Amino acid sequence: MTVQVRFGSMNDSASPHPFYVWLRRQLDRGDITTTEFCRDSGISMATVQRWARGEQPKSVEMVRRVARYLDLPIRRLVIIAELFEPDELLEELVVPDPRLLSDERLITMFTEEMRRRFIKPDQGEPASPGSADKPSGRRRRGRS
Fold first, then answer.
1. Do 47 and 62 form a contact (C-beta atoms < 8 A)?
2. pTM for this predicted structure
3. Where are the domains of the chain?
4. Which of 26, 85, 82 lies closest to 54, judged by CA?
5. pLDDT one-digit tens code per residue, 56-103
6. Nearest Cα to Cα of residue 68 among 42, 30, 32, 34
7. At a CB cut-off of 8 Å and minimum separation 6, what does 13 contact?
């Protein structure tokens, strides 16, 4: 006789995290056990148990593994996991039509983008154009 353990039962003192409830439904639909899911996704049983006890997934990487396993877009899962709000993701996906923006908003957006591209966050100084996304490979000499 095979007994399958389901985490997040009514006997638990904490209620399962909504992400776990959603994941459990997906696994049940596919007739996939928790053991199979953990083995095939690379997510530990302890992690799934934490979700079943009500803990929120702690990293996008864990959610990414679930998304890959279920062959679903990660955007949907990070919202279910409560790692991002829907409007936070929408900001990144929607590029506003510049014709509809005020001059002030255009200047602000341009300034923010230039800072993102050309200012080194750790040193607060301008990076040379084209080096924002790659290391320079040069070392600075210390002063004596």
1. yes
2. 0.53
3. 18-90, 95-135
4. 82
5. 898 889 999 999 999 888 888 888 888 877 776 665 545 667 777 788
6. 42
7. none
